[in-house]
Amino acid sequence: MRAAIIVVFVMAFWLAGSYAGDDGDREITGSTVMARVENGDTILVMELQPVDIVAAREFSSWREQRRYNRMVRNVKIVYPYAHKAGIMFREYLEHLEGLDTERERRQFTKEAEKMVRDHFEEDLKRLTFSQGLILLKLIDRETQHTSYDILRDFRGAFSAVFWQSLARLFGFTLKTEYDPYGEDKMLEEIVQLIEAGLI
After folding, report:
1. Which residues of the chain fall below pLDDT 70?
2. In terms of Cα–Cα distance, which of 102, 189, 89, 109 is closest to 154?
3. 88 closest CA partner among 22, 155, 142
């Protein structure tokens, strides 16, 4: 018993000595925040990051749940392409604004089209009809331009009309717009959950 007490005292003095010998070399982490005094109490004032609260979705039938799960799967497949399209679209627009002549712009758009085809064509060929429609809507969401407008701006009106006619043969329209508050409300919810890392 006496040995245990001696060990405890030795450890306590050793720990106290190690803290007392600290000359401020220890890195202290933290942050400075505002404070306000109300009725003698100090209240910290700080801005917190927003928190998303998502209720568990309830389904009225198994068909509705299956439809939702299929939509989640399809959006997870095509969202990375749409997100990348938005980034590339902004980069290309910025680059095009820096070009002086129409010839340079045409040359750049041809090179950009070749790069996009080389990088994405094989993957996009494997998309289903539903995934293709979702991709068109998400491209509009990410770029604030329909696929038709993008084609017309980069490749000209003739090319846009040609691809729109071809898309019509398969039941698509390149003029598909994204409506996050109406028809595409569930799609917007899924995208926000993906962006928040919740699904």
Report:
1. 1-26, 28, 52
2. 109
3. 142
**Quick check: is 96 in a domain?**
yes
pTM (2 d.p.):
0.65
Name all contacts of 186-191 with Cβ < 8 Å and 24+ positions apart. 186/68, 186/71, 187/71, 187/75, 187/134, 187/137, 187/138, 188/141, 190/71, 190/72, 190/75, 191/75, 191/79, 191/138, 191/141
> Residue 107 sits in which domain range?
64-195
Domain count, the chain: 1
- Residue 58 placed within a domain: no
β-bridge partners, 34: 45
144: how many CB neighbours lie within 10 A of its CB?
A: 11
Tokens read off for 142: 């990410």
Q: Report CA 104 to chain centroid distance, whole Å.
A: 32
Task: Output the pLDDT for position 70.
Answer: 92
User: Whole-angstrom Cα distance, residue 143 to residue 18?
Assistant: 59
